[in-house]
């Protein structure tokens, strides 16, 4: 049972005793002054339950109710007569996995949600449905029609079974939405839609979009600060417009990306589906788009996107553009078995003049002699004067990874920290870093490589 249920019970008992103390104190004070006090009447009221709960501020009651799982929120109707219908005014309704495990147990979900929404009173701020058994059905649209579109601020809908659910256009009447999260739905704003002008967070996963119109939709939602797109419709050109956008996270497929009016965008995370094919010029186009972001400080990029820059290892020294504001770079799924990927990664790193933190997540098991030899032939980078931290994750300790690490160390004179997280299926030994010991680096607990500071 949720601890908030016990908190609520505790508050009710505390309220009862405070009421008793108040009555007795008032009686003693009246007797000392020689006045009469109708103590017995107040004690009768107390025994009958009058005003023992209602002295709690309504906002506190709603805050407590909103933190209870739905099943326990309904059980508060047993606390007193005053509380019999209090749960129906709760501003947040959450039908989640916990609700499914504790309450459903084979019961039909649709009539329960329909019944709760029909009897709900007062403003509703949050509505969440993410139970594993939710199947695409007409009742979902009926729920949306029962929701108050003049108060709802948070909507989370996950359809688990039956493919993408085509949402009713009534969704686009919720003009007060601040947080919208949809999974396995079709999202198609009607023509003439003027946007959610209060929407701050938009998260879409496995959602069917209209690629030609999605850019216009984003432009109409000028308050968005966080945009997350996971495995949605593929884009030829993904257009991102957001004067207040600060975080973009994308996992899917696009041929190109453009940013328009994104002066605050500081964190970009890009990953790609298995079907994604890197074309020549993709990285150059991507870097050019990223270079137009004046506030970009953090970039997470799936390393296979780098391959288009160099198919045979003949990557340029650096890109045609520089990422002047980028401080933190995370390259994920780095194949240390491919010269093209390593060469392109080095070119990309060279194009980040104020880089301070570099994180590499590996995705390789075997060493390739040609990759190690390529890295040994490289001239140390002169542009990493500000690099202070290197983190290697899923590190196997093969020759390719070791040569890359040594190459980075030889280029980063101001380095303060290096951390290595071994691959759980690898066999990283302390002797893998023998070549680093002469630079005052030691192996610590098999997980962390830390520099010994000079005295």
Automatic annotation (TrEMBL):
InterPro entries: At1g61320/At1g61330-like, F-box-like_dom_sf, F-box_dom, LRR_At1g61320_AtMIF1, LRR_dom_sf. Gene3D superfamilies: 1.20.1280.50, Ribonuclease Inhibitor (3.80.10.10). Keywords: Membrane, Transmembrane, Transmembrane helix. The chain crosses the membrane at residues 6-24. The keyword Hydrolase does not apply. Residues 50-106 form the F-box domain. The lineage of its organism: Eukaryota, Viridiplantae, Streptophyta, Embryophyta, Tracheophyta. It holds the Pfam family LRR_At1g61320_AtMIF1. The keyword Transcription does not apply. This is F-box domain-containing protein.
